[in-house]
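Could someone model pyridoxal-5'-phosphate with this protein?
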Amino acid sequence: MSWSEFGKRFARRTGARELMDDLGDALASDRDICMLGGGNPAHIPEIEAVFQAEIERILANEGEYRRMFANYPSPQGEERFRTSLANLFNREYGWDVTAKNIALTSGSQAGFFILFNLLAGRQPDGSFRKILLPVTPEYIGYQDLGLTEGMLTALKPTIEELEDHQFKYRLDVSNLEIGPDIGAVCISRPTNPTGNVLTDNEMEQLLSAARGAGVPLIVDNAYGMPFPQILFTDVKPVWNPDLIMCMSMSKLGLPGIRTGVIVAEESIIDAVGSVNSVLSLAVPSVGAVLLNDLVASGRILEISEKIIRPFYVAKKDKALAHIHDEFEGIDYRVHKPEGALFLWLWFPGLPISSEELYRRLRQRDVLVLSGHNFFPGLDVEWQHRDECIRMTYSQDDSQVQRGIAAIAEEVRRAWQEAR
Ligand SMILES: Cc1ncc(COP(=O)(O)O)c(C=O)c1O
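Reply:
Sure, complex below.
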């Protein structure tokens, strides 16, 4: 096929496509695959029961049914739900937003595609602007979002070593310079893949640098407050017109409804609505209607705090305990897990690349992700990026345990071969 420029760029095997295919193949196979690779949220029975009850209530009510399935919503997303979200944010956190500050997108991934391309790329005056990722490792899904090549640039963090084989990436303020070639700054908090939560102080430094440069700070809050609260530190969500706050309904346990939320100043929301209408006329209302009562009543906070967060805390603690047992004698570090579904493992000086470690594990039917995928836009040499892997701990405990044992064996084998 003779593809257009757009076709060439988007029809190729991007990193994200390969990962999704890899995960899909594994799920489709009838082998007993130890699935520590994906970002699928866990299936928590109590949470599924809440959503099932909501679906039954909606299906029994003609007006709600029509709102969910039978009417086109506005291009910014279903209005009643956007109002319920605005009320929740104002009531709980003292934000000052209305439905006009909120747009829905078909998953937050689509929201990042729209935002990145609205704010970066070729400018009307012929110059070119990029999205700055100030702390890598960072979410792989940002990698190929640009309509043109080279839309991301990234900074290397500093590494703080902590007790108990842990470490934490820190914003390297000495490198933080936002020049005229930057259109926006973006950070996931909690971070996929590391579980890092930038401190309030780091967030203030980023915001003030972004403000100084006259560009927005995009905060990807897919795992954070107020939902789903897969977050193990205290964070008070803030919003102001210099911030673009992005949220997702996926990690509540609903990745199939493809519902993302953007909170931003009105002109940005209006622009997102325009892009939505070109791409798809409107975004689906299924998530908006399904979740409306939970948001309007504030129950979504309760289920996040009382069911989802404790579920992941217990999973994370178990996985960490297995790691400390199995990795005895190995030189390893774990990024301090402060949120999200992942543990980020670092093997300093690993004699094989993390990609080779990934391949060896895959041969044993253990799926993790090689860390080298998670440095979008970083174009400096750094051995560290070939020394890390990401593993998900949201799956079945016995699988997680088996996977961790296999990782330990393969790392030991790599060191034995090198000696
Ligand atoms: C940090 C982060 N942002 C955004 C997304 C996209 O989520 P969705 O498009 O399902 O809302 C993900 C998915 O894994 C993620 O980990």
